[in-house]
Amino acid sequence: MALLRLSGVRAGYGAIEALRGIDLHVEAGEIVTLIGANGAGKTTLMMTICGRPQARAGRIEHEGTDITGWPTHRIMRRGIAQSPEGRRIFPRMTVQENLLMGAAAGADPAAGMARVFDLFPRLAERRRQRGGTLSGGEQQMLAIGRALMAAPRLLLLDEPSLGLAPLIARQIFAAIRTLNRKDGLTVLLVEQNAYQALRLAHRGYVLVNGRITADGTGAELLARSDIQAAYLEGG
Ligand code: ATP
Prior knowledge:
This is ABC transporter. The chain is of the alpha/beta class and about 240 residues long.
């Protein structure tokens, strides 16, 4: 049974149809990467999994349970956490306070914080610094850390390397790999940085205009000349 399965999912905003029938699955223990151009529907897909916007058609299953139409808080309680595009940390709160905002009822905040500080030692050094004064890379670490505080089993990451210098982006990708290999965390990753993200992934999907146009292992997708031309040249 897949950890997450979408079948024929459609979603949008008013007259705009952003997702036009999505079929994809994520197995427990995988890193799955979704690539696509600006406006392809990647963020909408992540948001729809979390219940907002709601799917207009199709079915979203988590561990075999139909969660289509569920409110976001109920979906989160099943062990799904999201680090949204643009980080959206609380700028006036300290690192520590931001992390505590991510602790779900039932999660152990002290254990969560220790885990986050182990993964990102820079955050430990800056635990009393306000979120808004962190560098872009540190803010991204904080956004991922905050999502981890809920002790999720499925982590949805929307563009974690956006706007980061290459060296910092590599650190973020390395942290995602560690979470997957060491803790067995399952990850669905949306990325513009297709090369790094497909190298990291077990499998990937290509999204074009709200539809999946290709899928395969990370290596298979990286080897395809059409995908190289569309997403990897100059990258
Ligand atoms: P990017 O890489 O630029 O973030 P994306 O692949 O994540 O793009 P989405 O943000 O999901 O794409 O957008 C898909 C389509 O839905 C686009 O046409 C976009 O303009 C539209 N859209 C997204 N959010 C909204 C909204 N809140 N209201 C109306 N239309 C929206």
